[in-house]
Specification:
alpha+beta, BirA Bifunctional Protein, domain 2, Rossmann fold, 2 domains, eight-stranded mixed sheet, five-stranded mixed sheet, 16 strands, elongated, binds adenosine monophosphate, ATP binding
Length: about 425
């Protein structure tokens, strides 16, 4: 293994592709920031117990995929595999829910870690932007989050995504369904591990991707037939609000998602250009999670969108984001004296808020102009000894190719004017 190789299942973000990742994070969070969601940041690791209780002992995430470690002090920690449990923990710790302003609306962005088998679109380190609305039960809140995710994807130019929607019922009706499902599943021809899953979390068997399992599930009892009236009414309201907002969704009664804590509304954003790892984002309501981690009753709803897969989705659709060049002015000094003078101009430009860069390393004109081109700068400033003797710099418009001499003392002001 080369010493320059990132660990298995991970990759580095380097320019220029990294700019797309920043833009995606920005685009996903913008609708949240405009809708009353405040930014929250939590540690990259938590006590392992938080996830064991909060994500669920029966999930793959907790049983197989968590990076756990014991510190020198003996603490059992885990790198965070997802965001919701941490955000809820932090909100409870800071008593945000007691400030009398429910729901507590939060958004976050960061790295997550799962020890999964790496493949295209599935990594051991990945990046999410997420949102949580804590402490309120209101179908409009579920609808808001789905609408905002839809808006985010559309603002990026994505079109080939679909929204899958389901209701998982609540603590009244879900247990009844769970039992009916268990009774049905116990009679099927399934392997040991799946049989164990029937006893711990039978709904997840419905999520099994294997064709031979899916074939046996055709006549499985449907959750829809077991939803209580309150859950049905709630779900209908979410659907009506989405429809009124012009957000297209598909009812998918097989959608259960991999985490234990979901109740009622559950949804996933899938992209058809991504192959097997087609989920670009997902979320739902988690009314029981707060109590599961030892907090008060706080019905909540949230989602997380995968940044890596969103970038892959953009690439699959051939969407090129309109990323403005980061450098507006590139300075090319020819000779020692010009170096000092132009470095001064670059500093002045930067202080005036104009993005400027400089040909470092005393390079020749040809090489330096190549760098200027590559930087995407609209203007270059070139100065040699003769220019300085005349008190001017050469200002070149890289778009039109036009070049003119500008008095040195006016160079920064002239550029500011031209760049508007
Ligand atoms: P989940 O918490 O599993 O619903 O994940 C939410 C979103 O995070 C998914 O829809 C993916 O976009 C992304 N995601 C989850 N796991 C991975 C992974 N191993 N690699 C890349 N993205 C992931």
């Amino acid at each position: 293994m080369s010493t320059f190789q990132a660990p298995k299942g991970t990759y580095d973000l380097t320019p220029p592709r990294s700019a797309t990742f920043l833009a995606v994070r920005e685009a996903i969070s913008a609708p949240l920031r405009d809708s009353g969601y405040g930014y929250i940041e939590t540690p990259g690791f938590e006590n392992v117990e938080l996830f064991a209780r909060g994500v669920g002992e029966s999930t793959d995430i907790v049983t197989k995929e968590m990076y756990t470690l014991t510190t020198k002090g003996g603490d059992q920690l885990a790198l965070r595999p997802e965001g919701t449990a941490s955000v809820l923990r932090a909100a409870l710790e800071a008593n945000l829910h007691k400030a009398g302003n429910l729901p507590v609306k939060l958004w976050y962005s960061g790295s997550y870690y799962r020890y999964e088998r790496p493949q295209a679109g599935r990594y051991r380190h990945f990046s999410q932007v997420g949102a949580e609305a804590i402490g309120t039960e209101d179908p409009a809140l579920d609808a808001e989050l789905i609408i905002l995710a839809d808006q985010a994807y559309r603002s990026l130019g994505l079109r080939q995504f679909r929204i899958l929607l389901n209701s998982l019922g609540d603590k009244e009706c879900r247990p009844v369904y769970r039992e009916a499902l268990q009774t049905f599943l116990r009679d099927l021809d399934l392997d040991e591990e799946t049989r164990r899953r029937i006893e711990i979390n039978p709904l997840r068997v419905l999520d099994d991707k294997r064709a031979d399992v899916q074939k046996q599930l055709t006549d499985a009892p449907k959750l829809r037939d077991y939803l209580c009236d309150a859950c049905k009414a709630y779900h209908e309201e979410v659907r009506a609000l989405l429809t009124a907002a012009g957000v297209v969704f598909e009812d998918d009664e097989k959608l259960v998602r991999g985490l234990d804590y979901y109740t009622r509304t559950t949804f996933e954003f899938v992209h058809d250009g991504l192959g097997s790892q087609s989920a670009v984002g997902g979320g739902g309501r988690y009314d029981g999670l707060s109590e599961m981690i030892g907090g008060p009753e706080l019905p909540s709803v949230g989602w997380a969108l995968g940044v890596d897969r969103t970038v892959l989705a953009l690439e699959a659709e051939g969407v090129e984001l309109d990323l403005p060049a980061t450098t507006s002015v590139y300075a090319v000094p020819l000779g020692e004296e010009a170096r000092r003078v132009l470095f001064g101009v670059v500093t002045e430009l930067r202080r005036a808020g104009i993005a400027a860069d400089f040909a470092f390393g005393g390079r020749g004109l040809k090489g330096a102009m190549k760098s200027a081109n590559r930087s995407g700068a609209r203007y270059t400033l070139v100065a040699g000894e003769r220019d300085l003797a005349e008190g001017v710099v050469q200002l070149k418009d890289m778009e039109s190719g036009e070049q003119s001499a500008v008095p040195l003392a006016e160079a920064a002001a002239e550029l500011a004017k031209r760049l508007g």
